[in-house]
Amino acid sequence: MDRISIPNPYFEGASNVYLLRERSLAVLIDTGIGTPEASALLQKELSALGCPLREISVVLLTHKHMDHFGLARAVVDASGAEVYVHQDDWKDVASYDERHEEISQLYLNAMRLWELPQEIILQMGAVRERFSELARSVPSAKPLQDGETLDFGALQVRLLHTPGHTQGSACFLIENRLFTGDHLLPTYTPNVGATDVTSGRMLKRFIDSLKKILSLPNVAHLEIHPGHGPSWRDPRLRIEKILKHHDERTEKILNILSDKKPYTAFEIAQRLFGTMREHHVLLGAGEVYAHLEELYAEGHVERLFPNFFQSR
Ligand SMILES: [Zn+2]
Ligand SMILES: [Zn+2]
């Protein structure tokens, strides 16, 4: 197995692309972002590994973000490769171009719900316009379901649906190797709440998805190959740490709300994170909102008007 690192100027550092070869089969896990520079780099690195782009037979996508699937269409055009993605992210991959306006509108609604300042809403709108250039629709992509196994003869790949970071985020299990995309990362917790606004209750789903990995029978022997950063063995400590991190954040939010005054998601994010800039405002408020959704569902807070939350 080989790892190719594809830098990008927009998101959280370079993305990992994995190349697995078994006899005549050549599988890519994720592709990197859809810029001309990333495309040139991916082609160069694959050639250097003795597997030119045209020889790729399968592309597995961990989720619908541009820094992971951006070049999938270019790979298909060059190689005719089959592309697979979990069904809940499928529409946004297969119809990326067509859905651009609709998703922008969902983000606009979300940012209003979180009560972001108008200036930030305008800035983020401009950022989203640039995003339309970073990926292209992959109409030939095929949707997969949780637990489905792809049998390529030389290689069996099982998909585990691990929603949270996006609703169709998935890990691919190949023997004792688990390719986790952005669901499980070595050094920071992925954003939950702002990175997919097409569905609700993402924090609960994310926590459940982490526990799902903990419950795998061979968890202690798993090699984790994330979408960013280095690989490591045995995910248990890392998962425990992330679960604890979210518990602590919930506590901090409840603490802020303990004065019984109404707060918006943005106001709580300011209290938690201090001054935020550019897209960090969106990420911070979205993450707080995901926590508030859970606190509301569990009956700890009430909603007013409905963008304000108040402790019960
Ligand atoms: Zn992502
Ligand atoms: Zn990512």
Description:
- The chain starts with a strand and ends with a strand.
- The protein has helices spanning 36-48, 66-69, 72-79, 87-94, 100-113, 118-131, 202-214, 236-257, 265-273, 279-297; strands at residues 2-6, 15-22, 25-29, 58-60, 82-86, 142-144, 149-151, 156-161, 170-174, 177-181, 223-226, 232-233, 301-304, 308-311.
- Helix 9 packs across helix 10 (279-297).
- The protein has a six-stranded mixed beta sheet, covered by helices on one side. A six-stranded mixed beta sheet has the order 7-8-9-10-11-12, with no helix packed on it.
- It is 40% helix and 20% strand.
- The chain has 312 residues and is an alpha/beta fold.
- The mean pLDDT is 96.
- Strand 2 and strand 3 (25-29) form a beta hairpin.
- It has two domains: 2-97 and 135-234, Ribonuclease Z/Hydroxyacylglutathione hydrolase-like (Metallo-beta-lactamase, Chain A, 4-Layer Sandwich), CATH 3.60.15; 104-130 and 254-311, Arc Repressor Mutant, subunit A (Orthogonal Bundle), CATH 1.10.10.
- The chain is built from ten helices and 14 strands.
- The protein is globular.
- The site of one zinc ion has 5 residues, from loops.
Notable traits:
binds zinc ion; alpha/beta; Arc Repressor Mutant, subunit A; 312 residues; Metallo-beta-lactamase, Chain A; six-stranded mixed sheet
Structure summarized in a few sentences:
The chain has 312 residues and is an alpha/beta fold. It contains 10 helices and 14 strands.
Show the helix and strand layout.
Layout: E1 2-6, E2 15-22, E3 25-29, H1 36-48, E4 58-60, H2 66-69, H3 72-79, E5 82-86, H4 87-94, H5 100-113, H6 118-131, E6 142-144, E7 149-151, E8 156-161, E9 170-174, E10 177-181, H7 202-214, E11 223-226, E12 232-233, H8 236-257, H9 265-273, H10 279-297, E13 301-304, E14 308-311
Parallel strand pairs: 3-4, 4-5, 5-6, 10-11
Antiparallel strand pairs: 1-2, 2-3, 7-8, 8-9, 9-10, 11-12, 13-14
Helix pairs in contact: 9-10
Residues 63, 65, 165, 182, 195 line the site of one zinc ion.
